[in-house]
Amino acid sequence: MKAFTVDRYGKKSSLRLADVPTPELRDDEVLVQVHAAGVNLVDAKVRNGEFKLLLPYRTPFVLGHDVAGEVVKVGRNVRQFKLGDEVYARPDDLRIGTFAEFVPVKEASLALKPKNLTMEEAASIPLVALTVWQALVERAKLKKGQKVFVQAGSGGVGTFAIQLAKHLGATVATTTSTGNVAWVKSLGADVVIDYKKEDFEKVLSGYDVVLNSQDGKTLEKSLSVLKPGGRLISISGPPDPQFADDMKAPWLVKQVMRMLSLGTRRKAKRLGVGYSFLFMKANGSQLRQITQLIESGAIRPVIDKVFPFASTNEALAYVESGRAKGKVVIKVR
User: Fold this and answer.
1) DSSP 3-state assignment of 242?
2) pTM > 0.85: yes or no
3) pLDDT given at position 147
4) Residue ranges of the Enoyl reductase (ER) domain (predicted)?
5) Cis ω on the peptide bond leading into residue 238 (within 30° of 0)?
6) How far is CA 33 from the centre of its chain?
7) Which of 222, 184, 220 lies closest to 203 in space, CA to CA?
């Protein structure tokens, strides 16, 4: 099969279009013929080697964390899916590889594609949707009437988070650039701060939850907009000791993570707020709940650009540029 592979770690290394064997299917997996693949910042971070401590992929390996496609083969223990099913998923860590013609996905991580979405739209959903669900629903337990601050409202995570938080009945604040203010409001944001004109930490206060997706400086400022007892959940680091325990990381890695987040955790404690790091996990049952929201019209996908399969490197570069409004997708088939 054709696939885009990481031959060596590094920021300047391009993915290589290669002929590679179709992956072996395990008993609990489904082989998906890839129609479309979402592109995420985590793809660039994995290629750059930023997660080598946690996710030791051996080069060469196929990149890609989002898929929509058709079931063409099922493992002997698979019961929920059959040949011809249209599905979507975020494959499990250490089993990624959606920038390819075929990818194996665990049955437990797979869901039927929303009926009202194209393959390209469906491929834009899994990773960002599961990230937001696990942050706001599973961890923050966001409730009606609470206030949530979602950073970078026009990005892939931001556009989904605004819609889900609004659906849950929360008041939503976000940041964006001047040209996107009205558009982000149309997604459901109640308070929109143009970061080119205002500092959000001077405008916002008394928030229950912050979803942090930006750098360390933004994280520090974000802690101060929370009310006592509020929670900041970060998807961009630094990792905390709880995450290291959940990952069953080696002792040395645990100590590194403890030190990386020490300053942030101390500041949070001084302010009387909570800090935690989230690294999302593949989850088919959560994806099925997300499917219901999409099919009901409560949430819609937001796609900036669809690139042809041959332009996968260009798609990844565009995501890295930070200019995308919503998601970037590769059309494979």
Assistant:
1) helix
2) yes
3) 98
4) 10-330
5) yes
6) 22
7) 222
Does 239 sit behind a cis peptide bond, omega within 30 degrees of 0 on the bond before it?
no
Domains of the chain, each with CATH number or no CATH: 2-125+301-331 (3.90.180.10), 128-277 (3.40.50.720)
Residue 29 to residues 190, 192, 217, Cα–Cα distance (Å): 42, 43, 41
Q: Predicted confidence band at 134 (pLDDT cuts at 50, 70, 90)?
A: very high
3-class DSSP state for residue 21? coil
Handedness of CA 263, 264, 266, 267 (dihedral sign): positive
Provide mean pLDDT across the span 141-156.
97
Q: Which two tokens stand for residue 103?
A: 């990818």
CA 153/CA 174 separation, integer angstroms: 5
151 neighbors 212 (Cβ within 8 angstroms): yes
What residues does 88 pair with on adjacent strands? 68, 111
The tens digit of pLDDT for each residue in 217-243 reads 999 999 999 999 999 999 999 999 999
Give yes or no for a contact between 75 and 26, defined as CB atoms under 8 angstroms apart: yes
As a whole number of angstroms, the distance between CA 207 and CA 222 comes to 10
